[in-house]
Amino acid sequence: LGTQLKKEKGYIAAADKELLLDKEGIAITKLRPSGIIEIDGEKIDAVTSGEFIEKDVKVRVIKVEGMRVVVKKID
Hints:
Blueprint: E1 24-27, E2 34-39, E3 42-47, E4 58-65, E5 68-73
Antiparallel strand pairs: 1-2, 1-4, 2-3, 4-5
């Protein structure tokens, strides 16, 4: 319990994914139900609520749980 993760030793905290909530992007791989999306030029690992989404389909981030980004297809 005495170990400290410090920036000087190369530790970098995970980026805050909450900023992605309600943003729109595009599926750059098939989401079955996980895959990769792109939002504002950034590639992001994402999952759906269970449905499959094809490549090149527009998606919206509907939930963020820690590092888990959940998306749905935009109609």
